[in-house]
Amino acid sequence: MSVVDDSFGNPLKLEQKASMLFAGGIGTQGYQCGMLWGAALAAGAQAYRLFGSGPLAETAALLASQKTLESFRSRTNNEINCLEITDMNFQGDNPVRQVLKFLFKGGPINCFSMAAKYAPLAFTAINSSLSDEDISAATPPVSCSAMLAQRVGASEMHLVMAAGLAGGIGLSGGACGVLGAALWISAMNRPNDEIGLNIMESWAGGVIEQFLKSSDYVFECSEIVGRNFETIEEHADYMRAGGCEEIIATLAAQ
């Protein structure tokens, strides 16, 4: 996120700091690679700069998020989850052993190399998507994650930044974007020493616990809603029908 934001000439230090909890697929949980969460947030920041707030900006952010996802898949044999990409399960029976294995295999070097190669691809994907003159606003509510941001009183910029997380990031069906938005926004409201990777042992663990209770202990969007969304309008239709209201209300109350 930092590299892409800086490339657009729009450094956002607080927002970037809070995004570190996505490393390892939401605090080493193994879901979507933290680079995807960061790229989606960077896409939203640029969408806000270009389109302001509202349905058009949210739609643009979500479209750009989808493009960053496509560019990421092209480098990872179509995988998006940290667990599959690194072949590491940091939440297993012996997490210390997993960390040592990760270090021994050169995991940090590989991940930093991957980030260095992916950042310019994400920048190009975002720039290309947001330059499309044919973007038209979806019928609101556009994004479940933006709705959560609105419920908790986030700024208009943060609302648009969160929009691309909808449907498990770019409607990909991965780990819930509403949960990601709730964690990210909460992290921005906390001291720096409370933002880290051991999220299950910190304040974030409570947020995740409440989320799981409201989602029947399922993390991934496609499992929660029972399908993948093919279009932004399809997702908007689902939201207008009250989809995921319990999850959004539960996390907004945290």
Strands, helices and their partners?
Blueprint: H1 2-7, H2 13-18, H3 34-51, H4 55-73, H5 82-86, H6 95-104, H7 107-130, H8 144-151, H9 156-163, H10 177-188, H11 203-214, H12 221-225, H13 232-240, H14 245-252
Helix pairs in contact: 3-4, 3-7, 3-9, 4-7, 4-9, 8-9, 8-10, 8-14, 10-11, 11-14
Explain this structure.
The chain has 254 residues and is mainly α. The protein is built from 14 helices and no strands. Helix 8 packs antiparallel against helix 9. The model has no long low-confidence stretch (mean pLDDT 90).
What key attributes describe this structure?
single chain, 254 residues, mainly alpha, 14 helices
What is the N-to-C order of secondary-structure elements (H for helix, E for strand)? HHHHHHHHHHHHHH
Counting H and I runs of at least 4 residues, what is the number of helices?
A: 14
Give the percentage of residues in beta strands. under 5%
**Cα separation of the termini:** 26 Å
Please tally the β strands and state the result: 0
Report the uncertain regions. Answer: none
Helix content: 55-70%
What general outline do the C-alpha atoms trace? globular
> What is the residue-averaged pLDDT?
90
Radius of gyration: 17 Å
Largest sheet: none
